[in-house]
Amino acid sequence: MFGEEPGSTKGMEQMNDAKPPRHLSVIRHCASTARLVDSSEQDSDLRPLNLAPSLGEQHGFLPVFRSGSYSDIGPKRYMEDEHICIDDILSHLGIGTDLPAPGAFYGVFDGHGGADAASFVRSNLLNFIIQDQNFPNSVEKAMKSAFVMTDHAFADSPYLDCSSGTTVLAALIFGRWLLLALTNPPACRTMLIANAGDCRAVLGKRGRAVELSRDHKPNSKFERLRIEKLGGIVCDGYLNGQLSVSRALGDWHMKGQKGSSCPLSAEPELQETILTEEDEFLIMGCDGLWDVMSSQFAVSIVRKELMAHNDPERCSRQLVVEALKRNTCDNLTAVVVCFSPNPPPRIEIPKSGIRRSISLEGLHLLQGVLDSNI
Questions:
Q1: Half-sphere exposure of 368 (CA within 13 A, CB side)
Q2: Helix, strand, coil in percent for the chain, rounding step 5
Q3: Within a domain: residue 53?
Q4: Count: domains in the chain
Q5: H or E element: which one contains 300?
Q6: Dihedral of the alpha carbons of 31, 37, 41, 46, in degrees to the nearest 10
Q7: Cα(56)–Cα(152) distance, integer angstroms
Q8: Domain range spanning residue 135?
Q9: Looking at the chain, which terminus has fewer C-beta neighbours within 10 angstroms, N or C?
Q10: DSSP 219-243
């Protein structure tokens, strides 16, 4: 499924940095747009029979997908990040596909020990999802299975370095075609986040940051218990003293036979979200971004930028530029997905007789802390 054969020359100097050369531009960016169309706009042979009233009529909210991305090599010697932005899966797969209606797919892949794993996963993960036997009746099962199957396919490739690895963060937004499989109409605008590693997905909800993924670090309580239960150890924050993440695809020098349980897992954690009018945008970024800024700070930057120019690509670039100013130590990739064609509305704070000495960003940060402790 992955037809390109990358270069195989890796010197000892590259081994020390775990960053083999990339013959790619050090800065990459893209922007695109699509919307979740109503069934009346599709060809008649693609429409399911006896559909319920349109999504807009039922809920008054029809998501519009506009995405932008930006990557930079940062202070590293080699670029190992990959990403993908597909605002319309149906158009991306072509007319010949059996997929009966649109959806969207986004991914950030933070490679380590070489670029092979990140490149392979970027090219193949979506195909494994839609070809899974559980798709589209059980998208959650299809997503989990696709992560594992992609990992196994990478191990079987004769031309790739299976000792390279990558964290994987993917977002799949369902289209109206799920009415064929699901009885709950709001699922037509469901966003499923799948994460294996320390990339992070953050939802901008009327200016407040809502984290939709959990960083898989070996020294976190949840991951440490899982690792030790499977016979692994955590040494100075590293899994078996070698890897700073506890979940990843690839890294087959640290895994046993395919199908066996091991401390380094390729299985993602899933988070499902029903999009509403309050959900303004999604930020997906590699750990090089989150190492130097909080989720709330990133949401505040993007919202301010969108209100100024309403361009998700420029927002992604601003996040990367800000991380570079803060002296990040890694490659940088940011993806911003907007759910409306319009910029976010200005938040009006009711006037009161009490003087307030905290900023709006501080209020959102405090609210996030309180929510996490509930």
A1: 22
A2: 35, 25, 45
A3: no
A4: 1
A5: helix 295-309
A6: 100
A7: 41
A8: 61-346+358-372
A9: C
A10: TSHHHHHHHHHTT--EETTEETTTB
How many C-alpha atoms does 326 have within 13 Å on its Cβ side? 18
Q: Which token pair is 277?
A: 């009018």
Q: Which residues of 335-372 are buried (b: 16+ CB within 10 A; e: fewer)?
A: bbbbbbeebbeeeeeeeeeeeeeeeebebbbeebeeee
- Please give the structure tokens belonging to residue 79: 């670029």
The CATH code of the domain that includes 269 is 3.60.40.10
* Position 25 in a domain: no
Which tokens belong to 270? 């899933």
Which bin fits 285, alpha (ψ -120 to 50), beta or left (φ > 0)? Answer: beta
Q: How far apart are CA 291 and CA 299, in angstroms?
A: 15
Domain assignment present for residue 137? The answer is yes
In a domain, 341, yes or no: yes
Instruction: Please determine, for residue 26, whether its predicted confidence score (pLDDT) is greater than 60.
Output: no
Give the start-end residues of each E strand in the chain. 27-35, 64-72, 81-86, 104-112, 165-173, 190-196, 200-205, 208-211, 234-235, 238-239, 249-250, 269-274, 279-285, 332-338
Measured distance between the N- and C-terminal CA atoms of the chain, rounded to whole angstroms: 46
Is the pLDDT at 233 greater than 70? The verdict is yes
3-state secondary structure of 111: strand
Per mean pLDDT, which range of 10-24, 112-126, 267-281, 349-363 is the poorest? 10-24
| Cis-peptide, bond into residue 218, ω within 30° of zero | no
- Top-confidence residue, 18 or 123: 123
* Contact by Cβ (8 Å): 314, 236: no
- Tell me which long-range contacts 4-12 makes (C-beta under 8 A, separation of at least 24): 4/119, 5/159, 6/115, 6/116, 6/119, 6/159, 6/160, 8/159, 8/161, 10/114, 10/161
What pLDDT does 56 receive? 40
